[in-house]
């Protein structure tokens, strides 16, 4: 399995496992984006410094303005009326040296030098300037933090796999044919791939290889091994009652890469124990000096011809002169109705729909460093090697060692309310024909530990990897438990690889050839529902990416001065109001004109010689007199009024209205100007106050409405 074999879907999507919005892009755009982001973030520091400097300037000027000097009554009062308040002028003048530095200096080095060597600042202002310098330094340091977080925007994955043909294809042709042989080699390849993945990704001492990171999760969780001194079978068929169980917690299907908002879950358990080697389970017959051992742990009805034993070995494996292990595996079917190759004997009872795997392990000509009483890998007999003073040990028992394992795989609904065995024909009504369940079932296909070693046989053992020529390193304590753990992790790795294989359509090349059939076509389209970490693609966290892009423009806008913007907004609103008033005036004129036309029509329809009402002429004469005002009289009155107003003006008013003078010129005086963010904050506060007022008016109006509604109700019923 190589990540380059499949492509990824480019674009925005949501990872339902983490809930993050991601943007998948091909290389090198991910790296280019992060490089540009670092430069982009550095630009924002300039505007952040401007915002901070403006805020500090406001605090500084406001601090000086809010402390007026006390004045005495008498002459000072008269001076303030005539010449203005010299205390405020002095305060503004005292604030200017630091204000000029805050306005003109922005570099940390310049600010720090001014805070130490400036001759225009007093001690308090130097302290304030030093504090401001520290804030600017912290802000500059934040650029490093911002650069770090900009790199966190990019992920090496995940991405959705892009495939036009997805599904599971299996061989269903003639078993004794060339096509069946090729299918067996393909199964061997998948088994080898899963074993290598398990060794790289589930090993305790080895570091996680790059191939592990291709999948969404490098490995699936496994609980610590559980040791018990009981037998999971009947009639004392276990040897020494040594049992180990490896199990997983409930695993979400998204951990194997299934991409969906609602994913099912699964868990698996494997319980293994060495079997008894006593009669009647193992029997031997000697003929012509050759001993044959028969292992009666069930019959093989699928053999041609059928036999009543499970396995047989001939002679002593030590004499075969091969430094290897010999392994044969058999597995029971989950359903009794199936045509099983091997049917376990009655003592080997397993839970319903679980499967049983039995391994027969023989060590050939292998010498061990140390003695071992392991039930599967014994080394009990001393062997003197010529020229080596230290003794070696070998297995003196020619019989193969039987190891039986119970495999149980359960699938659960997304809400975990119901679970069922994956081999069960029905799941009690849970709809499991969706694409998510189909992908999970296909991923769990052929993942019993039987399929972890059936094709590799002896070379699939961990013990074989420490054999050099005829010598083996020490296997340590309980090597058979370590072998079981290796088979379990290989099964988990095959589950992960199966999910990738189905989603990528790896086996679609066999469609319609060599007896292969599809098991998933009837369950709909499975493409686009798998995520992994492919090479050649990057995923960006979409929301942080957008925030990062908008940070510089937003800071630029917020650092603009508010007053010019406010004037432009007011001007635009004034124009809009003028247009609205013009439209409203035109509408009123049209309405008045239509009314006048209707009145004229009514007058035209009235009788021409109708008698005039009494005193009509007198009223018209009076009206004419009233409508003609005396313009000369009005002008004289207005002039007199203006003269009176001027005569009552207090002495010295003209002198007081003259602008005050100060020692600070207009060019030198620094005046604080609000920025855009402060204006927006002010508008927000006003808007919230308006909402509160409206709510308050509504609350106050509710009792009045209630009283009005009560007044409409009749005071009594019945009677009459």
Automatic annotation (TrEMBL):
Which portions of the chain have biased composition (kind: Polar residues)?
642-662
Q: Where is this region: Disordered?
A: 65-90, 596-663
Q: Which domain of life is it from?
A: Eukaryota
Regions that span the bilayer = 28-45, 128-149, 542-562, 675-699
Q: Where is the composition biased (Low complexity)?
A: 605-623
Q: Which UniProt keywords apply?
A: Membrane, Transmembrane, Transmembrane helix
Query: What is the protein name stated in its UniProt record?
Result: Uncharacterized protein
Which species is the source of this protein?
Byssothecium circinans
């Amino acid at each position: 399995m190589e990540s380059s074999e499949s492509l990824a879907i480019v674009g925005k999507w949501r990872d339902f496992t983490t809930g993050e919005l991601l943007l998948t892009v091909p290389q090198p755009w991910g790296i280019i984006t992060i490089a540009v982001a670092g430069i982009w973030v550095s630009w924002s520091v300039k505007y952040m410094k401007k915002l901070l400097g403006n805020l500090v300037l406001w605090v500084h000027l406001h601090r000086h303005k809010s402390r007026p000097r006390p004045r005495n009554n008498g002459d000072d009062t008269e001076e303030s009326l005539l010449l203005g308040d010299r205390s405020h002028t002095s305060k503004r003048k005292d604030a200017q040296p630091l204000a000029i530095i805050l306005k003109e200096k922005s570099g940390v080095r310049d600010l720090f030098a001014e805070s130490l060597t400036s001759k225009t600042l007093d001690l308090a202002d130097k302290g304030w300037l030093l504090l401001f310098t520290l804030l600017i330094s912290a802000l500059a340091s934040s650029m490093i933090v911002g650069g770090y977080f900009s790199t966190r925007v990019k992920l090496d994955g995940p991405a959705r796999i892009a495939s036009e043909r997805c599904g599971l294809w299996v061989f269903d042709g003639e078993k004794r044919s060339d096509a069946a042989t090729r299918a067996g080699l393909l199964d061997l390849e998948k088994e080898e791939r899963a074993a290598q993945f398990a060794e790289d990704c589930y090993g305790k001492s080895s570091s996680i290889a790059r191939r592990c990171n291709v999948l969404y999760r490098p490995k699936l969780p496994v609980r610590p091994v559980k040791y018990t001194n009981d037998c999971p079978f009947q009639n004392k068929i276990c040897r020494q009652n040594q049992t180990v169980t490896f199990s997983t917690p409930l695993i979400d299907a998204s951990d194997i890469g299934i991409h969906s908002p609602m994913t099912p879950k699964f868990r698996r358990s494997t319980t293994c124990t060495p079997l008894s080697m006593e009669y009647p389970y193992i029997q031997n017959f000697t003929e012509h000096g050759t001993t044959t051992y028969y292992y009666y742990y069930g019959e093989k009805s699928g053999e041609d011809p059928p036999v009543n034993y499970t396995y047989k070995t001939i002679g002593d494996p030590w004499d075969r002169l091969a430094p290897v292990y010999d392994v044969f595996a058999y597995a029971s079917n989950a359903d009794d109705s199936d045509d099983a190759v091997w049917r376990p004997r009655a003592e080997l009872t397993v839970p319903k729909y679980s499967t049983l795997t039995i391994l027969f392990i023989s060590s050939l000509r292998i010498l061990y460093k140390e003695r071992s009483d392991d039930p599967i890998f014994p080394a009990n007999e001393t062997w003197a090697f010529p020229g080596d003073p230290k003794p070696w040990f070998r297995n003196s028992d020619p019989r193969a060692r039987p190891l039986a394992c119970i495999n149980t795989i359960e699938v659960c609904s997304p809400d975990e309310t119901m679970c069922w065995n994956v081999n069960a024909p029905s799941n009690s009504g849970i709809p499991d024909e969706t694409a998510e369940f189909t992908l999970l079932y296909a991923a769990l296909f052929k993942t019993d530990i039987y399929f972890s070693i059936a094709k590799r046989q002896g070379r699939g053992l961990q013990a074989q990897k420490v054999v050099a020529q005829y010598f083996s390193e020490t296997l340590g304590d309980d090597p058979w438990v370590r072998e079981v753990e290796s088979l379990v992790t290989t099964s988990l790795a095959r589950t992960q690889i199966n999910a990738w294989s189905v989603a990528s359509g790896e086996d679609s090349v066999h469609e319609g050839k060599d007896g292969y059939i599809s098991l998933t076509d009837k369950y709909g389209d499975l493409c686009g529902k798998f995520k992994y970490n492919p090479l050649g693609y990057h995923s960006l966290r979409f929301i942080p990416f957008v925030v990062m892009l908008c940070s510089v423009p937003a800071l630029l806008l917020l650092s603009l001065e508010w007053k010019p913007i406010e004037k432009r907004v007011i001007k635009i609103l004034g124009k809009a109001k003028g247009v609205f008033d013009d439209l409203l005036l035109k509408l009123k004129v049209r309405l008045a004109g239509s009314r006048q036309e209707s009145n004229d029509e009514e007058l035209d329809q009235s009788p021409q010689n109708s008698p005039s009402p009494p005193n009509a002429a007198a009223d018209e004469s009076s009206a004419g007199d009233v409508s003609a005002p005396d313009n000369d009289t009005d002008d004289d009155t207005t002039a007199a009024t203006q003269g009176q107003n001027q005569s009552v003006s207090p002495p010295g008013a003209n002198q007081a209205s003259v602008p005050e003078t100060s020692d600070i010129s207009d060019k030198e005086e620094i005046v604080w100007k609000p920025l855009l963010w402060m204006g927006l904050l002010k508008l927000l506060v006003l808007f919230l106050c308006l909402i509160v007022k409206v709510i308050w008016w509504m609350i106050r109006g509710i009792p009045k409405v209630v009283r009005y509604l009560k007044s409409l109700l009749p005071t009594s019923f019945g009677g009459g």
